[in-house]
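Structure (tokenized):
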């Protein structure tokens, strides 16, 4: 165990001193890659302790085990010793670490992804193997370079294909991996969109399984966020109708309502940031606008806040028909009811939401006044 502890400590020092080296780069991947947070029933992500023979499925497993099973005082002491090493000593240790890693036969992230992709492509394997492969990919694609490399291994083609799998567990996991890989990654967004994933994910939104719809919406949002082509495809696929149907259905899980409102607010904000692009009918769908406004009346403060924020962004758009908000959506009446609800609450969060409500009301009145003035 002492050997593993020193490896863990030394790897941390190498990250700080050799950020551009091969070992440092791989160390950064493993230290920062295992944070797959997302609501819902979570997949089992990483096995903390491996088999009794001392083997580890990855460098991440070894590092986490060594740190988790070490004495903090000893870890600190050895870290200080390592930090006092000269550049020559560090270079020597770096070489020794590489050799040790080779002896331990620790697979690289690329090798792990290839194994997972091959397992997914093998239809003769049982369901448990496919789920395990998806769990591995969910961790690995957290790192942007791994997500990009997954396409070279044919991973995205397989993931998009199994979005149509007969087992909902597989579809859910595949959508989750695609969403994770696409987050803030324009290269992956482009690749996945070109494979036709958006159309399949939008069909998955009609699933009777709540978790499938939640993960599908997560993946949709990740694919089109800050991506002009993705947004255009979403509009062409009647994304406004999809979101309107979600918000109008009170029987659906509240997570779907919140994610829908967040996505709408984000789309409106993107439109505001690109004022030279033509505004689309998405932002004038009266049924969608009414569903957004009606969401303010929720007893869930977080949902109310997201509805207010989406409404605020929509009101700021040049093409917004404020009369539609007034006459059809009854925005002034809903804002007043929301004010009364918030005043009955004493918690600090309610005060923050009330501040946002006032801001929305002011924007609404200003917009109405502009229409009145231009009519004179």
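Design, position by position:
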């Amino acid at each position: 165990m002492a050997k593993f502890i020193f490896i863990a400590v030394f790897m941390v020092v190498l990250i700080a001193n050799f950020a551009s080296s091969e070992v440092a780069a791989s160390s950064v991947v493993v230290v920062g890659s295992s944070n797959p947070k997302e609501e819902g029933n979570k997949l089992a992500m990483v096995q903390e302790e491996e088999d009794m023979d001392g083997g580890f499925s990855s460098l991440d497993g070894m590092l986490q085990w060594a740190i988790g099973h070490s004495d903090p005082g000893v870890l600190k002491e050895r870290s200080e010793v390592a930090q006092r090493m000269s550049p020559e000593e560090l270079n020597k240790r770096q070489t020794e670490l590489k050799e040790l890693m080779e002896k331990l036969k620790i697979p690289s992230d690329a090798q792990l992804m290839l194994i997972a992709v091959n397992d997914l492509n093998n239809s003769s394997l049982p369901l448990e193997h496919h789920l395990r492969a998806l769990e591995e990919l969910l961790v690995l694609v957290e790192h942007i370079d791994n997500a990009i490399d997954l396409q070279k291994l044919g991973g995205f083609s397989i993931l998009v294909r199994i979005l149509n799998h007969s087992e909902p567990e597989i579809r859910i996991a595949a959508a989750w991996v695609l969403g994770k890989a696409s987050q803030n990654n324009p290269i992956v967004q482009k690749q996945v969109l070109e494979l036709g994933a958006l159309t399949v994910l939008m069909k998955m939104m009609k699933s009777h399984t709540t978790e499938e719809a939640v993960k599908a919406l997560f993946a949709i949002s990740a694919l089109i966020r800050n991506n002009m082509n993705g947004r255009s495809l979403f509009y062409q696929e009647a994304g406004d109708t999809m979101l309107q149907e979600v918000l109008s259905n009170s029987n659906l899980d509240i997570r779907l309502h919140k994610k829908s409102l967040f996505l709408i607010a984000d789309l409106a904000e993107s439109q505001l940031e690109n004022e030279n692009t033509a505004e689309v009918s998405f932002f004038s769908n009266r049924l969608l606008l009414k569903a957004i406004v009606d969401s303010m009346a929720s007893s869930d403060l977080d949902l109310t806040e997201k509805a207010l924020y989406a409404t605020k962004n929509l009101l700021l758009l040049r093409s917004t028909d404020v009369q539609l908000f007034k006459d059809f959506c009854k925005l002034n009446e809903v804002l007043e009811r929301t004010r009364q609800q918030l005043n009955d609450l004493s918690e600090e969060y309610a005060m923050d939401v009330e501040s946002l409500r006032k801001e929305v009301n002011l924007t609404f009145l200003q917009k109405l006044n502009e229409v009145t003035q231009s009519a004179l």
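Reviewer-requested clarification: Confidence is low (pLDDT under 50) at residues 1-5, 13-57. Residues 2-106 form one domain.
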